[in-house]
Amino acid sequence: MDAILQVVKDRASLDLSRYKRTSLERSIARRMRARGIADVSEYASFLTRDSEELQTLVSEVTVDFSLFFRDPELFDFLQQIILLKIVLRKKASGEGAIRVWCAGCGSGEEVYSIAILLFEALKGKASRDTVTIFATDVDASSLDKSRAAVYSPESIGNVPPSTRERYFHFDGSYRVKEFIKELICFGKHDLLKNPPISRIDLLLCRNVLIYLDPQGQSVVLRKLCYAVRPGGYLVLGKSEGLSGEISDFFAVVERGEKVFQRKDGDKCPFS
């Protein structure tokens, strides 16, 4: 197992040492079965020779799967409450563009869902001057899928027909229209290793912490805390939460949907 982790670190520049060991073992076991390899050391050797399998394992570990408007109750809450508050505050203060960060964006369904909701909240006047959406992931292949913005009918099952017509082209697959894609800046980013993006009004980091051990979770939570501006919002996955000193920096907005608001006060240190 340590040999496999070293191969991933050396050849894919991804340090998995803070990921939960049991989760890693399950992912590796699935890939070994798929390749018909029974011995762990043999699989480690195979990874050094096969870059495609290495990338497949990375995608397996980082869980490249989502749907548009996954967890509809959360997206309804964001649309009806949170995004409207952010838009009104920005207009009242004249602070400039709304800044959103989807950390661990996977294949892009979540970030495009947020972009669509923001476009509607701004009554069709969203542009790079009014909105900046950062979409980051540790997996380069996931980012490639996100940038391509091509999705199956199954992926958009939660999208109403009128929304499909307005924001997607259909040619057998659904393709996100350019005016939505233009709102998003994609980039490779490792939450465990890289510094956070700052001054964020809405930060979604859902179902990332569950794959990390306690030390890894602590590292990431500090960075998320630092990233969110006072008055801004943080959204975690339903099985995730704030812990330790980080919880002191946030107020609970919607407990069931794991929506938190950054309190006024000093910035949370991320190191």
List keywords for this structure.
alpha/beta; Rossmann fold; 271 residues; 3-stranded antiparallel sheet; 7-stranded mixed sheet
Describe the structure.
The protein is of the alpha/beta class. It has two domains: 2-62, no CATH class; 72-262, Vaccinia Virus protein VP39 (Rossmann fold), CATH 3.40.50.150. The protein has ten helices and ten strands. It has helices at 2-12, 21-35, 40-49, 51-62, 72-93, 109-121, 140-148, 161-167, 178-181, 214-227; strands at residues 98-103, 131-137, 150-151, 168-170, 174-176, 184-188, 200-205, 228-236, 250-254, 259-262. It has a seven-stranded mixed β-sheet. A three-stranded antiparallel β-sheet has the order 3-5-4. Helix 1 packs parallel to helix 3 (40-49) and helix 2 packs across helix 4. The longest helix has 22 residues, at 72-93. The radius of gyration is 19 Å and the shape is globular.
| Contiguous runs where pLDDT drops below 50 for at least 5 residues | none
Strand content: 15-25%
Tally of separate domains: 2
Strand pairing plus helix content: what structural class?
alpha/beta
Name the CATH superfamily classification of the largest domain. Answer: Vaccinia Virus protein VP39
Query: If strands are numbered along the chain, what order do they take across the biggest sheet?
Result: 6-2-1-7-8-10-9
CATH class of the largest domain: Alpha Beta
Could you write a compact summary of the structure shown?
43% of the residues lie in helices and 18% in strands. With 271 residues, the chain is an alpha/beta fold.
Secondary structure: elements and pairs:
Blueprint: H1 2-12, H2 21-35, H3 40-49, H4 51-62, H5 72-93, E1 98-103, H6 109-121, E2 131-137, H7 140-148, E3 150-151, H8 161-167, E4 168-170, E5 174-176, H9 178-181, E6 184-188, E7 200-205, H10 214-227, E8 228-236, E9 250-254, E10 259-262
